[in-house]
């Protein structure tokens, strides 16, 4: 279906900046104008498609800045393809994902990026972009970073965790950060002390502690905080901006707060699983806890308040999903009898907008902050704003009609992610996506999927818009 002239009437438009009782005119796949419901301007708009949003929110499509579709990891591959994962994203009101292309050790950034383009090309239901995982810092890959920034891959994830897989030592990290300081790239850091964690993993297994809950114990909160601190100091020395991914420990939030209080260009992301789940889930009976194995790990419930607070105070700026699903049967069960063999990662791309809206309902954040952390700031952080992340003239018409009163129960029976469990099975939430437009084209219409693989376009990015 092609983009026609569309008017959305009667809704409450919410952006990071404003709440407006306004009608929205869409032309040629972009937002053309907004006007008050009862204005002569809005009354004069004619359109082939009119969407009645009375009693609903009209919000920008979500921007999920951290996904891993069909990522090879832990001896298996994440179970959502770009096709299934972006379809599920659309169901959940997310219209842009930024996924991670991976540099193989001994290979170039270019070959990794090409491989990810081949996976995603003509598959996606919604728009997509790439970060680059740098796992082999050398003269060639450092030079390639400059070229990738020019091409619109403007952020580079590095790992202080996973020795022997993606791990980089401090010298390699410093060199990549120095390069990013010169070319405008944003370093994204998986901040956990992987060398120390591997010692604790060995000790736990030798002591017969093999259940999923020990995944949380060995990946100690202090080892997240220590790595966060070290990454910040390395970025400071390099004069580079830094974005810490999937922050889960309150001690890591404190490191970010201290750095930001010094005026450093340091940013933090958390994920819904850290806001809503805890080590109680990792300790569920039998092998059930494996469903919640991800890194950084879920923390004791008390950490959730610090994360919500960080989101309110802007010490954390973004909520992404780190969507990296593995089926319970056939994938997570690779770790029966040895928690270190459970593939790390959780599903969530479909749940993020709803869970954060639940954060509004529960009084943790305001409606505008919901849109800021889920749409506008990730778009600015990753150089996609104002094309993505807002509803304003000229922006892509990525728009969600959201029913704030609808009740739903999250379940693997009804979700659209290609994974055999829900991390939120049975959770009741208020609010639900009703209709989703991607560049003006309906993808979800009155809770039916009407999109297609290949509608989603690759979207090159500019540099992080928070840099001064
Ligand atoms: O457990 C996780 N987070 N899996 C995905 C890879 C990563 O570290 O982001
Ligand atoms: Zn990570
Ligand atoms: Zn990740």
First-to-last CA distance: 41 Å
| Spans of at least 5 consecutive residues with low confidence | none
| Overall form | globular
Q: What average pLDDT do the residues reach?
A: 97
β-sheet strand percentage: 15-25%
Radius of gyration: 21 Å
Under CATH at level 1, the class of the domain at 61-381 stands as Alpha Beta
Helix content: 25-40%
Summarize the structure in words.
With 468 residues, the protein is an alpha/beta fold. It has a domain at 61-381: TIM Barrel (Alpha-Beta Barrel). Helices cover 31% and strands 23% of the residues. Strands 1, 2, 3, 4, 5, 6, 17, 18, 19 and 20 form a 10-stranded mixed sheet that branches. Strands 7-10-11-12-13-14-15-16 form an 8-stranded parallel sheet. Helix 5 (170-183) packs across helix 8 and helix 8 (221-238) runs parallel beside helix 9. The mean pLDDT is 97. The site of N-(aminocarbonyl)-beta-alanine (URP) has 9 residues, from loops.
């Amino acid at each position: 279906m092609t983009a026609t002239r569309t008017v959305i009437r009667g809704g409450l438009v919410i952006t990071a900046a404003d709440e407006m009782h306004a009608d929205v005119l869409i032309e040629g796949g972009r937002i053309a104008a907004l006007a008050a419901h009862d204005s002569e301007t809005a009354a004069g708009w004619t359109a082939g498609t009119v969407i009645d949003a009375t009693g609903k929110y009209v919000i920008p499509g979500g921007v999920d800045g951290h996904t891993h579709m069909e990522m090879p990891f832990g001896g298996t591959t994440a179970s959502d393809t770009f096709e299934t994962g972006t379809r599920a994203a659309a169901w959940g009101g997310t219209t842009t994902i930024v996924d991670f292309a991976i540099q193989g050790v001994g290979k170039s950034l270019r070959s990794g990026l090409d491989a990810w383009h081949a996976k995603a090309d003509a598959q996606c239901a919604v728009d997509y972009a790439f970060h680059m995982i740098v796992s082999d810092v050398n003269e060639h890959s450092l030079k390639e970073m400059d070229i990738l920034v020019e091409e619109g891959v403007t952020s580079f994830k590095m790992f202080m965790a996973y020795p022997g897989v993606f791990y980089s030592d401090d010298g390699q990290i410093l060199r990549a950060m120095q390069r990013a300081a010169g070319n405008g790239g944003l370093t994204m850091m998986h901040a956990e002390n992987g060398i120390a964690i591997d010692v604790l993993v060995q000790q736990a297994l030798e002591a017969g502690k093999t259940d999923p809950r020990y995944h949380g114990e060995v990946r100690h909160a202090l080892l997240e905080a220590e790595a966060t601190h070290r990454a910040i100091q390395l970025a400071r020395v390099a004069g580079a901006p830094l974005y810490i991914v999937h922050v889960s420990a309150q001690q890591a939030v404190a490191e970010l707060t201290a750095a930001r209080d010094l005026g450093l260009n340091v940013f933090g992301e958390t994920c819904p699983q850290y806001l809503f789940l805890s080590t109680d889930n990792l300790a569920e009976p039998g092998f059930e806890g494996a469903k919640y194995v991800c890194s950084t790990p879920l923390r004791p419930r008390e950490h959730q308040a610090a994360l919500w607070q960080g989101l309110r105070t802007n010490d954390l700026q973004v909520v992404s999903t780190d969507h990296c699903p593995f089926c319970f049967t056939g994938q997570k069960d690779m770790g029966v009898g040895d928690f270190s063999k459970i593939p790390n990662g959780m599903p969530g791309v479909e749940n993020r907008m709803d869970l954060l809206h639940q954060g509004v309902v529960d009084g943790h954040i305001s409606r505008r902050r919901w849109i800021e952390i889920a749409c506008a700031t990730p778009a600015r952080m990753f150089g996609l704003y104002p094309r993505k992340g807002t509803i304003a003239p000229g922006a892509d018409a990525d728009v969600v009609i959201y029913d704030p009163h609808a009740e739903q129960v999250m379940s693997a029976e009804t979700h659209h992610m290609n994974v055999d469990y829900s991390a939120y099975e049975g959770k009741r939430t208020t609010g639900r996506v009703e209709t989703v437009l991607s560049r003006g084209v309906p993808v979800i219409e009155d809770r039916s999927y009407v999109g297609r693989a290949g509608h989603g376009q690759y979207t090159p990015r500019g540099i992080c818009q928070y840099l001064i």
